[in-house]
């Protein structure tokens, strides 16, 4: 009981000392941190409103630019449809002047072909109607759905602009058009003149492609800048091309000063001073048409957003600074003053449990915690056994990680070689062999990836080697043959994946391809020897010196490596992987001599099907 009271008094005294230290820290914090930070925050609040207002409007401009890009894409789809019809040679053939005097039956055939052309163009989701204005003498000029007499177009205010454009596209702003089959609708149009292919100075028709104003309006309605926004699109004269208020379509909606400012710039932000009703005009240019996309937002709405952001950032900053330094004060007190003492006491209690129960609190108080620790260090040696056990587990994990790393390094350049081969086949052979190459490559990926598993069946590993060689036969036609000989009884056994492919690659690229004849034969064999799996890859190619062959398996990058690109590194990796899987007694062996070919033999432990999880 007295011991507990003694401990309580000692902790209480320590707490009072900590509070005294905390008072000093808190006073320093208030004088040196809190008051200066408050002044800085006030200055920041006053000066940042303008900056934040600019940031808000700049953010709105970015939104408008993105909307403009979207609209440009929609208009370009209509433009592409116009270009597709305009470049169709049949159109000029059908509109040739000599066709006007053709028999009615022939003109009906022309009408059928032209209608098919129009219907195909109208499958574009942005195209509302394709209209072709032709000479009234043609029998189909009075069809009034896709075909119209030229005279009906001459009263349009934009007719002269189309003629002056000489065949270039003229974008026509929103106007109301009546369709026999679809009723009345506000549309935007592309119009262009069609010349006689034989007599270029003569006009044979006008091609008009319509899209509904509602298509544009749907995109503009999705823009969310503020609750009181007004978004519209105008042409170079300031006339509304698209507007939420349809009564304003086709009418000027910009003041002279605002129109001049907007027309002179591709994009920008203009503040319109109108007393208490001041507002911002945020605008950008639609590149495909030259029209301007304009958003009018009340200045009060932007100021409100800026003030909200300003207030939030100021409060957040003040709270963050306060909390950070308060935490700093108490963390320093708690962890520097008390934390050290607690850790020392924890270590002592642990040592007591291991056999130092004879050391009581009085000895600790008189001698001090450090002296007790110094006398008790030798008892901690018993803990080394636990550390050794943990070290062993760590080594096992490190071994597995090393295995996966080695596996991941094998032949990454094969993918690029194959893709390069496909590319040159496509260019050089007019794409006749691409289908076969892609099919073989897909098989290679399926077998090599193996759904992320590390082990594959012997049958799949042999198939992977076959697919690789088939791909290389497309790359090096008639340069080599290969055979695969295996015992079907071992096909269901398992082995580390991507074991044979690097060996087969070396046999081809550094055996066959580097021989004097540049051709040869590769033989792959697999059989079971007791509880071991034996695979071999032989070629009758260039071969190598015995010393080079030895270094291929003993050094990652031997000085005398026959492959400056690093293919010998693949053999070293395969050998290391097998030793990690099966042990030191397994791996690769190489038998070779110059101009007598090379044989690489793989020996590894059999992994049976039931051993694979």
Automatic annotation (TrEMBL):
EC numbers: 2.7.13.3
Where does the record say this protein resides?
A: Cell membrane
Q: What is its main location?
A: membrane
Name of this protein: histidine kinase
Q: PANTHER family, per this entry?
A: SENSOR HISTIDINE KINASE YPDA
Which Pfam families does this UniProt record tie to the protein? dCache_1, HATPase_c, His_kinase
Q: Where is the Histidine kinase domain?
A: 500-608
- Transmembrane stretches, start-end: 21-45, 315-337
Arranged from A to Z, the UniProt key words for this protein are: ATP-binding, Cell membrane, Kinase, Membrane, Nucleotide-binding, Transferase, Transmembrane, Transmembrane helix, Two-component regulatory system
Can you tell me which residues the record assigns to a coiled coil? none
User: According to Swiss-Prot or TrEMBL, what is its membrane topology?
Assistant: Multi-pass membrane protein
Alphabetically, the GO molecular function entries are:
kinase activity
Q: Which reaction does it catalyse?
A: ATP + protein L-histidine = ADP + protein N-phospho-L-histidine
Say which domain of life the source belongs to: Bacteria
Matching entries from InterPro entries are given as: Bact_2-comp_sensor_kinase, dCache_1, HATPase_C_sf, HATPase_dom, His_kinase_dom, Sig_transdc_His_kin-like_C, Sig_transdc_His_kin_internal
């Amino acid at each position: 009981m007295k011991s507990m009271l003694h401990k309580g008094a000692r902790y209480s005294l320590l707490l009072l000392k900590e509070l005294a230290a905390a008072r000093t820290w808190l006073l320093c914090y208030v004088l040196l941190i809190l008051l200066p930070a408050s002044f800085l925050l006030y200055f920041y609040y006053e000066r940042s409103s303008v900056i934040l207002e600019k940031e808000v409007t700049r953010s709105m401009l970015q939104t408008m630019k993105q909307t403009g890009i979207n609209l440009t894409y929609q208009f370009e789809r209509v433009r592409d449809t116009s270009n597709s019809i305009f470049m169709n040679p049949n159109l000029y053939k059908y509109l040739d002047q000599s066709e006007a005097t053709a028999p009615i039956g022939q003109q009906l055939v022309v009408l059928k072909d032209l209608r098919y052309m129009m219907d195909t163009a109208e499958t574009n989701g942005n195209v509302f109607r394709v209209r072709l204005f032709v000479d009234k003498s043609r029998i189909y000029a009075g069809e009034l759905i896709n075909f119209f007499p030229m005279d009906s177009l001459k009263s349009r205010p934009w007719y002269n602009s189309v003629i002056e454009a000489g065949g270039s596209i003229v974008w026509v702003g929103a106007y109301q058009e009546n369709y026999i089959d679809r009723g009345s609708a506000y549309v935007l149009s592309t119009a262009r003149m069609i010349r006689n292919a034989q007599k270029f100075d003569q006009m044979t028709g006008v091609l008009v492609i319509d899209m509904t104003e509602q298509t544009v309006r749907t995109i503009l309605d999705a823009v969310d800048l503020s609750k009181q926004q007004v978004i519209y699109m105008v042409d170079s004269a300031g006339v509304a091309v698209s507007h939420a208020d349809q009564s304003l379509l086709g009418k000027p909606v910009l003041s002279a000063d605002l129109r001049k400012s907007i027309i002179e710039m591709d994009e920008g932000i203009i503040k319109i001073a109108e007393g208490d009703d001041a507002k911002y005009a945020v605008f950008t240019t639609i590149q495909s048409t030259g029209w301007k996309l304009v958003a009018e937002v009340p200045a009060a709405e932007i100021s409100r957003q800026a003030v909200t952001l300003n207030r939030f950032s100021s409060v957040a900053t003040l709270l963050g600074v306060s909390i950070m330094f308060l935490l700093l004060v108490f963390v320093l007190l708690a962890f520097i003053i008390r934390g050290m003492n607690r850790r020392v006491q924890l270590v002592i209690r642990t040592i007591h449990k291991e056999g130092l129960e004879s050391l009581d609190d009085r000895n600790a108080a008189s001698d001090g915690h450090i002296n007790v620790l110094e006398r008790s260090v030798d008892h901690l040696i018993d803990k080394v056994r636990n550390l050794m056990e943990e070290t062993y587990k760590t080594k096992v994990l490190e071994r597995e990680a090393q295995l996966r790393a080695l596996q991941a390094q094998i032949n990454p350049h094969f993918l690029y070689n194959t893709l390069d081969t496909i590319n040159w086949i496509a260019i050089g052979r007019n794409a006749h062999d691409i289908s076969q190459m892609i099919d073989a490559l897909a098989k290679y990926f399926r077998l090599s990836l193996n759904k992320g598993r590390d082990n594959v069946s012997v049958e799949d590993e042999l198939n992977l080697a076959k697919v690789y060689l088939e791909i290389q036969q497309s790359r090096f036609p008639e340069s080599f043959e290969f055979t695969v000989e295996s015992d079907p009884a071992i096909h269901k056994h398992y082995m580390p994946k991507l074991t044979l492919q690097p060996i087969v690659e070396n046999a081809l690229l550094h055996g066959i391809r580097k021989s004097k004849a540049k051709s040869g034969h590769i033989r792959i064999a697999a059989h079971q020897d007791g509880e071991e799996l034996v695979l071999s890859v032989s070629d009758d190619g260039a071969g190598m010196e015995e010393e080079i062959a030895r270094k291929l398996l003993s050094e990652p990058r031997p000085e005398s490596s026959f492959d400056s690109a690093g293919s010998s590194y693949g053999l070293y990796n395969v050998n290391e992987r097998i030793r990690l899987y099966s042990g030191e007694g397994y791996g690769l062996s190489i038998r070779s001599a110059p101009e007598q070919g090379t044989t690489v033999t793989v020996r590894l432990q059999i992994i049976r099907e039931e051993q694979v999880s």
